[in-house]
């Protein structure tokens, strides 16, 4: 078991939210053309978005909120 499995970072949830935001931009004109779809497929692959997650996000990107990373700093 990798140590990263012991300490979840919510990175995957952040990636899904980020991807959903990109899908919303692509849908601004109410459709996704072939070039946009290919780009979305490449981005999904790089962000470790599964096929089922990809389909769900394309169907309704509003169901996925963008998670803004927070940093704790001592001031």
What does this entry look like structurally?
This protein has 75 residues and is mainly α. It has one domain (9-63). Helices cover 51% and strands 0% of the residues. The protein has helices at residues 11-26, 34-46, 51-59. Helix 1 (11-26) runs antiparallel to helix 2 (34-46). The termini are far apart.
Short description:
The protein is built from 3 helices and no strands.
Compile the SSE list and pairings.
Layout: H1 11-26, H2 34-46, H3 51-59
Helix pairs in contact: 1-2
SS-based structural class? mainly alpha
Q: What characterizes the major β-sheet?
A: none
Discrete helix count: 3
Number of structurally distinct domains: 1
Q: Tell me how many strands there are.
A: 0
Let me know the average pLDDT. Answer: 88
Distinctive features:
75 residues; mainly alpha; 51% helix
């Amino acid at each position: 078991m990798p140590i990263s499995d012991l300490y979840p970072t919510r990175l995957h949830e952040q990636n899904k939210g980020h991807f959903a935001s990109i899908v919303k931009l692509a849908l601004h004109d109410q459709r996704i053309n072939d070039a946009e779809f290919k780009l979305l497929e490449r981005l999904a692959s790089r962000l470790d978005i599964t096929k089922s997650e990809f389909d769900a996000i394309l169907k309704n990107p509003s169901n996925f909120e963008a998670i803004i990373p927070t940093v704790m700093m001592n001031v």
